[in-house]
Design goal:
The structure is a homodimer of 115-residue chains.
Chain A lengths: L9 H10 L3 H14 L2 H12 L2 E2 H8 L3 H13 L3 E6 L2 E6 L2 H17 L1
Antiparallel strand pairs in A: 1-3, 2-3
The structure holds a DNA duplex (30 and 30 nucleotides).
Chain lengths: 115, 115
DNA sequence: CGTTCATATGTTTATGTATTCATATGATAG
DNA sequence: CTATCATATGAATACATAAACATATGAACG
């Protein structure tokens, strides 16, 4: 039997290992928060709190190029945080889900209660 | 007076500009979510859901070097998501705030309701 | 159909950052 | 005060990614 040296946690570690959710779920969760973790995307999402907006309205509002906004809208759409509808040439984006609001509001609470 | 060309949103943009919270707040919010947006940090936080743990227990549990864990614990601590206490040579880390649980749970809900 | 407007996408570049490796701190025991 | 254990930190490297730029798609209109 192996000598027990130093700080030994094997029992605790074994137990917790059984309790932790799959790595995959935790990874998905991190990936979700990563989407919120960018100022441009956060500003876009916040813009859409009020109402749906077309791409060029968002560009003007945030003072950024249409390309930059389009790229980020794609990320948001791929992750089901926004959706869009077409009206002629114009495409309107809107929040896909009420969870988006809740997640952001929860984060906001953390910040404000901290100061 | 300037000719009105193309798609014009100036009125809408002006209005929304007044409604958007400061850039600073939105940036802070993105920075907060950025912390959750890393698999290692997410795994650490999840480990601490059960109970406080010392650094080397976390390292063993996640199968990562002590250094990597220490670096990430520093990020988490600087952002007030975890706190620690000393007991001799050992330092125990724990969740700093119940918001941490809530934010993660909210994200988890979004993921599960989606599939 | 060819032009124009709204949006999307591919590529490049610059910046941020997670991990590793080496080393430092700091507490305890002897 | 020296050795050892737990943890922290500094520097280097490797990888991810946001924005810019150029170009492509795709709808409407004459």
């Amino acid at each position: 039997m192996p000598e027990k040296k130093k700080h030994d946690h094997s029992a605790l570690v074994d137990m917790l290992h059984r309790e932790l959710p799959d790595e995959e779920h935790l990874c998905d969760l991190a990936d979700l928060f990563k989407i919120f973790g960018d100022t441009t995307r956060m500003r876009i999402l916040y813009s859409l709190f009020e109402s749906e907006l077309c791409v060029c309205a968002i560009s003007e509002l945030l003072g950024m190029t249409q390309s930059a906004i389009s790229h980020q809208l794609r990320v948001l759409k791929d992750n089901h945080l926004v959706a869009n509808r077409r009206e002629g040439k114009t495409i309107y984006y809107f929040l896909a889900d009420d969870h988006v609001r809740k997640i952001i509001e929860q984060g906001y609470e953390h910040l404000t209660e901290e100061e």
